[in-house]
Design a protein that fits this description.
Helix content is 76%, strand content 4%. It has helices spanning 2-12, 19-49, 56-70, 80-100, 103-122, 124-129, 131-139, 145-169, 197-214, 218-249, 257-295; strands at residues 175-177, 180-183, 186-189.
């Protein structure tokens, strides 16, 4: 009995930290910082100073917390060769992107290198276990300006069209010319900052997060993620409508400044609640379906 207790205690005891284990970890950490320290600092500066990238300040720490909470799975096994192959691709990508001064590839190579280290230490199954934190980290990397510009302009046109349609339904004389809404005596210009790109990025991240936490079915998770796009577009169109409505029936100053910003935040909260309601409804349906599967064999 005493031998059994002592052996169980030995299994539960924390492993002692020795140079044999800590040495390779410290060398790996030093090499990672040497290769990717500068790209990470540049990314952190963008999170802090660029409004279009500010969501990274929330997503990156949240991804680390989720990975910590989920922990290492029981099936985790080191896969050194696969991890080293991923690391090799990451280092080559970092070198090529550094020569071309291409920030997006440079930053993605940093995440790829982190994934390679995880595979080296715990195997590819652990990466699958950490799919949600990995996806959040990918979303925290700002897209290239070329892609942002290509996406922002169609969003401006769509928001302008929705806003103009809603204004015409409220019997407001309106004429739409691209992303300019002409009202009696004034014009409402839907700029790139009002394209809804920031709210779209945030809602996609929220849709991914809520689906990953509340839902089990990959299909339902994809539904929530895909629905976040039309929700963001429609809500931004409603914002354009409210701005035009207040400018036409109220005061032109209501279309700028604090009121305009407050209106944007309020509608983003509304979009968040809509997406949360959709996710909660799908979670209820998923739970009902699983309960029926559990009860059916007993009938």
């Amino acid at each position: 009995m005493r031998a059994t207790i002592s052996s169980a205690t030995a299994r539960l005891a924390m492993p002692t930290l020795s140079w044999k284990h800590a040495g390779p970890a410290l060398v790996t950490a030093a090499a990672f910082l040497a290769l990717f320290g500068a790209p990470f600092l540049a990314l952190a500066r963008d999170w802090w100073s660029d409004p279009d990238a500010a969501h990274g300040l929330l997503l990156a720490p949240l991804a680390i917390v989720i990975a910590w909470k989920r922990g290492v799975g029981a099936s985790a096994r080191p896969q050194l060769w696969l991890g080293c192959a991923i690391l090799a691709v990451a280092v080559i990508s970092r070198y090529v992107a550094g020569l071309a001064a291409e920030l997006f590839t440079l930053r993605m190579s940093m995440l790829l290198a982190a994934a390679g280290l995880v595979v080296c230490a715990y195997g590819f199954r652990q990466m699958l276990r950490w799919w949600l934190p990995a996806a959040l980290l990918v979303l925290s990397v700002p897209l290239p300006d070329l892609i942002l510009s290509a996406v922002a302009f169609p969003l401006q046109l769509k928001a302008s069209a929705i806003g103009a349609t809603l204004l015409s339904w409220r019997h407001v004389p309106v004429q739409l010319a691209g992303n300019v809404i002409h009202l009696p005596g004034q014009a409402l210009f839907v700029t790139e900052a009002c394209s809804g790109l920031r709210s779209l990025s945030a809602l996609i991240a929220l849709g991914l997060l809520m689906g990953g936490i509340w839902l089990q079915s990959p299909t339902l998770r994809w539904i929530v993620l895909l629905l976040s796009v039309p929700v963001a577009i429609v809500i931004n169109g409603v914002r354009v409508f409210l701005t035009g409505y207040l400018v036409h029936f109220g005061n032109p100053s209501l279309g700028t400044g604090f009121m305009h910003m407050t209106e944007g935040w309020a509608l983003f909260v509304a979009a968040f609640l809509i997406l949360g309601g959709i996710t909660a409804l799908l979670a209820k349906l998923e739970g009902w379906r699983l309960s029926r599967k559990t009860v059916a064999p007993n009938l």
